[in-house]
Amino acid sequence: MEQGTGKTRTALELIKPRIEQGKVDKVLWLCPCSVKENLKRDIIKHCGDLPKFIRIEGIESLSASTRLNFELLSLVNTCKVFLIVDESNLVKNHKAKRTQRIQSLAEKSPYRLILNGTPISKNEKDLFSQWQILDWRILGYQSFWSFAANHLEYDDYGKIRSTLNTDYLVRKIAPYTYQVKKSECLDLPPKTYSSCHVPLTGKQWRLYQEAKENFLMLVDECDSSTIYRLFTALQHVVGGFYITSIPEAPLEFSPMFKPEENPRIEALSNVVNGISEKVIIWCKYTQEIKDVACMLREEYGEDSVVEFYGGIKQKQRQENINKFSNNARFFVANKTCAGYGLNLQFCSYAIYYSNDWDYATRMQSEDRIHRIGQENNVHIIDLCSYGTIDERILKCLYKKEALVDRFKDNIDKQKDKNYLAKWIDGKGG
Hints:
This protein is of the alpha/beta class and about 425 residues long. The chain has helices at about 5-20, 35-45, 60-65, 65-80, 95-105, 125-135, 135-140, 145-150, 165-175, 180-185, 200-215, 225-240, 265-275, 285-300, 315-325, 335-340, 360-365, 390-400, 405-415, 415-425, and strands spanning about 25-30, 55-60, 80-85, 110-115, 150-155, 160-165, 190-195, 240-245, 255, 280, 305-310, 330-335, 350, 380-385.
């Protein structure tokens, strides 16, 4: 079910008759840690209170806590459990510890449900682990390797070249899938997209070209991390940071400007000055969140801004959400952290101060405001330095492509470094 179409209410309606009939006596609801408090509020809204038989835990916690894992294993071994995995795309990696631990819980749970608005963010490989949680017999494969042998074709570098027999997968999952699109059940106002050009200074352009040449020389098509290093270095320069480490060493950065002198901060300030309503500002890096929040506090007052990122404790995050819904005007956040589960439809403006190449989290973050209850047109604004990595990221997001995979394809097609340099800047087709 797409974001904002009522997955929580639908799940509760499926739980209710099984509880009443005694088929289950406990519900284990796994969701992203950042969503736990919001999920509790949603359940209370529908049920009047949080039922004692529902236990909510964070998916990420299963990776970090052996104690929690043993506790939940004891629960599924002693009770008839209805297992719900909310935002199941977080368990699409079959090698991940949390995926394996949730699989162990699922095997002991008589009822299982996965909820997701974007179950496939990359390719059909994403399906295997999510459907394995429900029942291996649906797809018919007990291991990932048997699934891969029938549906994935790899190149000489271990990258998925193509997917096979997808019609078989569709036929197998169709009887067990309930799909809802927003266009089918909601009459939502439209989303409008625009971009604001952020010019680079002469110093930035010089450092950008140097970084592109230095890091491009180290790219190895067999090692995705070298491509991520290239993109990360370029994004930091565009964002106003020096690269203080050598290309071969772990990346380190320092500010190139005072926050108030950063061209990107200035561009954001100009955009915000033209908006009189509440605004969500999405940033990729924590330092960007802090710099943006600092600028906004200086211009609009200390209480006008709340921050939301991984370094903030859960209790404080909830307090910040409450402040934003009441008096604060700006919500400055990381979309990986705040892009799931939050209901922020009282706001209709979202500005992407910086982007990454993950289409799934981009759509999740957009739909924090484009969901049930939204009465106004939703305005999405991207800050973009044209002719840089910014432009390439946006092109890939608009085409729903993975940037790293697109870059690898161009490596395969054209080994010439000048061609790849032009491609990064959006000039290579």
